[in-house]
Design brief:
24% strand, four-stranded mixed sheet, globular, alpha/beta, 37% helix
C-alpha cells in the first residue's frame, strides 16, 4: 500500500503528515518564516525521513493553507477549509462543527455526516480571535505566551475586555495593568473575549453533533476552558491539533475514508 502526504503551509507554521491507509507514519512541523517554499521543503523532507520513505515512493501530495499554490512538488492544491473538515472528521467521525484557531485566522466549519463542508465562517481580515492576538497581549503583559494558560487557570474571575481590535485591546490591557488589575484575571478576560468572538461566529452556522477544536491555539488549555464554558458542551481536542489540516490533505491525497480508528484522542 502506497503512502501519501499532506502539506499545510500556514502563515506562521508549516505542517506535513505522511499517511498510509489509516496509519500516520510521520509528521513534521516548522515555522514558515519568510520562505514558505523552503520551509515546506524542509518539513516535507523531515517527515519523509521519519517515515523511512523517498519522495518517489509517495502516491500523491496535496498542499493546503495560505502557501499551497507555491509548492512545486504538490500533486494538487485544496483549500484549508476542506482539509480541516476532512482531518477533524477522520479523527472524530461524529464531528459536525470544527473550530480552527490558527496564528492569523479563525474558522468555524459546519460538516455533514460524511465530513463534507456545508458552510463556514472565517475571520482572516484582522488578528482578533487568533493566536497572534494572544501573542501581542502576552508581550503587553511581559510574559511568555506559553504561560497564559496557567495564568488563566489561576484566575478567580475575568476582567472584562471591551475591545477585540488588537491595537485597542493592547492599550486596554496596558491601562488595566496601570490601574492595578491582577494579571491572571486580565489573561482570563482575554481568553473569554476570544471565546465570545468565536461563539458569535459559530452562531451563524447550525451547530449540531460534536465540536472539534483544531489549530495551534487548541493547545492552550485556557482557550479550551473558555470555549467549553461559553459553548456549554464538550470539545474534541486532537492529540496534535496543529496537524489536522495536513492530515486532511493527506487523506484527500489518498482518498482514505474517515474511520474511528485514528490517532490518539482526548475528550475535554
Amino acid at each position: 500500500m502506497r503512502a501519501f502526504a499532506g502539506i499545510d503551509v500556514g502563515s506562521l507554521c508549516t505542517k506535513v503528515v505522511i499517511l498510509r491507509g489509516e496509519e500516520v507514519l510521520s509528521w513534521s512541523l516548522r515555522r514558515t518564516g519568510a520562505d514558505p517554499v523552503g520551509a515546506a521543503r524542509r518539513c516535507f523532507d523531515e517527515a519523509l525521513a521519519r517515515a523511512g520513505l523517498q519522495e518517489g515512493e509517495l502516491g500523491g501530495v496535496v498542499a493546503t493553507g495560505y502557501g499551497r499554490l507555491r509548492i512545486p512538488f504538490a500533486s494538487r492544491q485544496v483549500t484549508e477549509i476542506t482539509c480541516h473538515a476532512r482531518g477533524a472528521h477522520f479523527l472524530f467521525p461524529k464531528t459536525r462543527t470544527v473550530i480552527d484557531i490558527g496564528g492569523q485566522d479563525a474558522k468555524v466549519i459546519a460538516l455533514d455526516e460524511r465530513g463534507k463542508v456545508l458552510d463556514f465562517v472565517m475571520n482572516d481580515k484582522c488578528a482578533a480571535g487568533t493566536g497572534r492576538f494572544l501573542e501581542v497581549m502576552a508581550q503587553a503583559l511581559e510574559m511568555e505566551i506559553e504561560e497564559m494558560a496557567s495564568e488563566a487557570a489561576n484566575a478567580l474571575k475575568a476582567v472584562p475586555i471591551s475591545s477585540m481590535c488588537t491595537v485597542f485591546a493592547e492599550s486596554e490591557v496596558i491601562s488595566l495593568v496601570a490601574e492595578g488589575s491582577r494579571r491572571d484575571e486580565i489573561v482570563w478576560g482575554l481568553h473569554r473575549a476570544i471565546a465570545r468572538r468565536i461563539l458569535g461566529m459559530a452562531k451563524r452556522l447550525p451547530m449540531k453533533g460534536e465540536v472539534t477544536f483544531t489549530g495551534g491555539v487548541a493547545k492552550n488549555r485556557g482557550m479550551v476552558r473558555a470555549l467549553r464554558e461559553l459553548l456549554g458542551i464538550p470539545l474534541n481536542i486532537p492529540h496534535e491539533p496543529q496537524i489536522v489540516g495536513a492530515l486532511g490533505a493527506a487523506l484527500l491525497a489518498s482518498s482514505t475514508s474517515p474511520s474511528v480508528r485514528a490517532a490518539e484522542r482526548l475528550k475535554i
